[in-house]
Amino acid sequence: MNQNDHLTEEDKKVLLDHDYDGIQEFDYPLPSWWTASFVLCCLFAIPYMIYYMGMGGLSIAQGQQMDMVELNKVRTAYAVKMAKFDDAAYSAFNNDEGAKLGAVVYEDNCLSCHEEKGKGDIGPNLTDAYWIHAKGTKETIYEVVLNGREDKGMPTWKEDLTKDEILQVVKYLMVIKDTNIADGKEPQGELIK
Ligand code: HEC
Questions:
Q1: Domain for residue 71, yes or no?
Q2: Is 90 exceeded by the pLDDT of residue 7?
Q3: DSSP letters along 103-125, please?
Q4: How many domains does the chain have?
């Protein structure tokens, strides 16, 4: 008896000639979903190759580098914008609401060194008319808060606060200055009238 006797005529049509120690195989076509996805991959690969190998498409690293250049531009523009006291933006906070917002910024960030209501502790009294770095004006206070005086223990705030938050806290300091709070820290710096 031939080993292929049990095969149907259909099976025999697709049976390949070769025989490996009695092991034979049918020549069925690949599943159509497989062939379709293979063809789709090839179709995708052609424009992909043309774009990335012939037309200067960016690699991930190059793309990231371009993004960093963009980001640095934005950062520089923001730093330049922050560095200048913005009168128009300040006027939006130059009111009771602005002072309230500023008080919150103060309590969250400044109170630890300048004590409650600016009476002074590690940092100087902010309710008197004496100033070490600022000159008691909104512009000079803004500059000191923005850049800090890190060698003297006053942190820079341009990294941690937004421009609006700095303007708000400046408004708060403008409100409390010259109020000479009771039991405040002794005056430091120059008397500014
Ligand atoms: C880690 C402590 C610390 C924190 C937090 C801090 N400061 Fe200061 N600040 C200081 C010190 C210290 C000085 C004085 C530096 C000196 O003696 O030269 C100072 C100085 C200042 C001055 C200048 C005063 C002057 O006499 O010219 C201003 C204005 C000021 N701080 C505002 C703020 C504001 C607003 C915040 C919160 C956003 C803040 N500081 C948070 C420590 C701090």
A1: no
A2: no
A3: HHHHHHHTHHHH-GGG--SSSPP
A4: 2
Ligand 1 centroid from CA 124, angstroms: 7
SS3 128: coil
Where residue 126 sits, what CATH number does that domain have? 1.10.760.10
- Tokens coding 40: 């789709």
- Let me know if residue 98 belongs to a domain: yes
Q: Which atom of ligand 1 has the smallest separation from the CA of 105?
A: 38
Question: Residues 127, 180: contact at Cβ < 8 Å?
Answer: yes
- pLDDT value, residue 1: 56
Whether 2 has a pLDDT exceeding 90, the answer reads no
pLDDT in tens, 26-71: 998 899 999 999 999 999 999 999 999 888 888 899 999 999 999 9
